[in-house]
Amino acid sequence: MNRREMPVASETVRPDPADLGIEALRTHVAGEMQRTRDRSITLTSAVDDDELVEQHSPLMSPLVWDLAHVGSQEEIWLVRDVGGRSAVRPDIDDLYDAFQHARADRPSLPLLGPTEARQYVTTVRDKVLDLLERTPLEGRRLVERAFAFGMIVQHEQQHDETMLATHQLRRGAPVLDDVPPPAAMEADSLPAEVLVPGGPFVMGTSTEPWALDNERPAHEVHVADFCIDTTPVTNGQFLRFIDSGGYDQPRWWSEQGWQYRQHAQLHAPLFWSNEDGTWWRRRFGRVEPVALDEPVVHVCFHEAQAYANWAGKRLPTEQEWEKAARFDPHSGRSLRYPWGQEDPRPEQANLGQRHLRPAPAGAYPAGAAPCGARQLLGDVWEWTASDFLPYPGFAAFPYREYSEVFFGTGHKVLRGGSFGTDAAACRGTFRNWDYPIRRQIFAGFRCARTPGRDELS
Ligand code: AVJ
Ligand code: FE
Predict the structure, then answer these.
(1) Residue 113 to residues 45, 68, 118, 119, 163: CA-CA distances in angstroms?
(2) Which residues are involved in binding Fe cation (predicted)?
């Protein structure tokens, strides 16, 4: 049973929850659960109860569904499975099973109301904090190094980001606090792109204790020479694509992309509008001029791909992205984060809803990767050219519905997290995925290209 994955030699070792004594690990878990719940409460108390049960977009659940769903998953995995305790609300499992009801249909279900939902998640949490004290955190893979607790923390943080996207879609006055992100440093003097020399690197992880199944196992991948943009593509750069007629020229688009561009009448990123020749964007209830130096956000895969073609480049593969983000050529090892092994600090990455927008391109010099690329973690999710597929040796754990049922050519991989992603739910190996037409997520992109022979010395 207790099959611990073998660490691969060239994956870095680090201080992690495994190095904490068992009591310190419990304290760490309780702290992460509380910090995460505080965020969920912020997101669900910023609007009144009428808005909580409303559907702000057919793409999203009512916020009150996300809240109770988070509690339901916590009940199923921690109260029942890990704790072996009796069910709190077995009658509502089906209502909050994401596979039973499409998002568009959720408002018409007999959902728990705001008061009931809050009581429910509190009842579940009280039981979990109690059993956390008594459960041995070893002897069974699900609890090894508190994995199930980490999985549930990440699940709640993922739904918090989804709720943040619902906040962005809702109409009405601003309700969330907004602190400006740091300015760009030396943005103009940064090279537009960096070269990553060809060679092998270790992709994925077998040592990160809270890594999810699709990030495993660590495996060696050979990547040819490539150049990758130093920063994500900015609004200013994207405007040049718009102004040159990029949305009207099928030659930049894939066949599928052009079809969708026609069908959805795409002409600019989601939430942009043009008034008398000026581009404005709506951002969490504020309408403001498009900030030219910020990474573009709310574009779908097809728009990202069209821009890259227009620019004479392409999107990076997932392998290229991860090598740029993790490979340290000095040690030959793959790092946990672009900057090294330590968990993200505010000077290193725009994560965790601290700011309600990406920082200007060129910000976060302290978060640069060994190759020199910046803002790989945080700011905007980055579309890659890759389909969401299992790594060699993949094994679903602990349930097929997290990753396995989504593998295939229908979903594209996104990497790096956004300003709305919490550090607990993001790392150099983390893989996100979505349909190539989705624009409500906090997604942008950066470009890559294969260098010509004459560019390599
Ligand atoms: C990893 C963001 C694609 O939110 O759809 C949440 C994660 N899985 N509940 C999503 C997830 C189950 C998932 N993404
Ligand atoms: Fe979920």
Answers:
(1) 13, 9, 9, 10, 17
(2) 69, 155, 159
